[in-house]
């Protein structure tokens, strides 16, 4: 079964001060998109770079997640260090994901320019940082998800089958 990691980065959610709605929004969105069977590897952690790095590494290297999606910690506040953690553990960066997510979010809110989402590759896994607001999560995933299955294909990952009535992945036509 395909494994996908979901990491909510939030001091308050990890301390139980409030419920994690952002991670659940990612899970719900993926359930809408995917018809492949998949298993979530889900964690709520504080805004600590070392913990974020270790969690991503564990999900990729030990849990064999083909995709890891983080939410939270992408703003300009001092404790927002998710992009730094992602960059530290990736072999190669994929800046187009962050660029497209910011461009999409700018259609809805002028402060989207403050977001520092990024994406990168570790081994044969794709890691993507999303903002922390559930509405923004769906908007950003709607924008970038069409490229995700093909990216995973190119890294010899599992073939993610999508509900094309909800999201249409891009895959080149076979000749």
What is the CA–CA distance across the termini? 29 Å
Q: What Rg do the Cα atoms give?
A: 15 Å
Helix run count: 7
What is the name of the CATH architecture? 3-Layer(aba) Sandwich
Number of strands: 6
Biggest pleated-sheet summary: 6 strands, mixed
| CATH-assigned homologous superfamily | MoaB/Mog-like domain
Strand content: 15-25%
- Our count of domains comes out at 1
Question: What is the overall pLDDT average?
Answer: 96
CATH topology description? Molybdenum Cofactor Biosythetic Enzyme, Chain A
General form? globular
Please write the CATH class name. Answer: Alpha Beta
Structural class: alpha/beta
What is the helical fraction, as a range of percent? 25-40%
Poorly predicted runs: none
Strand line-up across the major sheet: 2-1-3-6-5-4
What letter string, H or E per element, gives the SSE order? EHHEHEHEHEEHH
Write the layout of secondary structure elements.
Layout: E1 2-9, H1 11-14, H2 22-33, E2 38-45, H3 49-62, E3 67-71, H4 82-89, E4 92-93, H5 95-106, E5 119-122, E6 125-130, H6 134-144, H7 148-154
Parallel strand pairs: 1-2, 1-3, 3-6
Antiparallel strand pairs: 4-5, 5-6
